[in-house]
Design goal:
With about 190 residues, the chain is an all-beta fold. Helices cover about 0% and strands about 50% of the residues. The protein has 1 helix and 13 strands, in the order E-E-E-E-H-E-E-E-E-E-E-E-E-E.
């Protein structure tokens, strides 16, 4: 884990990113984009997320994976830490989506399920009470900037009922949920 500020630790997602969502101007990218249908977030408008997501991944806006498409990935927390809240920056694709991530105690002895609910990246407003983490006034579709749709990434924070010692965290298997950042408040 990387300490972002006192009491907040960023989970390192770097080895687990599976989806490229952000495209720079004029980028010639292959693949389906953020949603699998050729829609991309304008990288220059979302670069301001750097402070919120623990820095920008390499190849930001050039087709490099910049987020985790939730497919049951598990991240170790070393050393295990008492967590009071869980936060994410991300979005749903194909609709606003709700699922759960699982916090696992040392040696898997206990687990705590935490709601993971993120509105669609093209939603007009939050479906689950999240806040806008970043927003743009254009959407890139197969390299062409389209004015009007306002793509967004959402920030969600879920307090736990009581501190929970976390040794690892497992994302749900829900490929429509995309996580750019995951952090714990200690």
């Amino acid at each position: 884990m990387l300490q972002v500020n006192p009491g907040r630790f960023q989970v390192d997602l770097s080895g687990h990113r599976t989806n490229a969502a952000c495209a720079g101007p004029g980028a010639q990218l292959l693949g389906g984009g953020f949603d699998g249908f050729g829609k991309w977030l304008p990288a220059e408008d979302f670069a301001a997320l750097a402070d919120q997501i623990g820095g920008l991944p390499g190849r930001w806006g050039a087709g490099g994976a910049d987020n985790v498409e939730c497919q049951g990935q598990q991240f170790l927390v070393a050393p295990p830490a008492p967590v009071r809240a869980v936060g994410v920056v991300g979005a749903g694709t194909g609709g606003s989506l709700r699922d759960e991530l699982t916090l696992l105690g040392p040696e898997g002895a206990r687990e705590q399920r935490v709601p993971l609910a993120l509105s669609d990246f093209l939603a007009g407003g939050p479906a689950f009470g999240e806040e806008i983490a970043a927003e743009a006034d254009t959407l890139r579709i197969e390299g062409i900037d389209i004015k009007g749709p306002r793509p967004k990434l959402w920030r969600s924070r879920r307090p736990l009922p009581a501190p929970f010692i976390v040794a690892s965290v497992r994302l749900p298997f829900n490929p429509g949920l995309h996580v750019f950042s995951l952090w714990f408040e200690i």
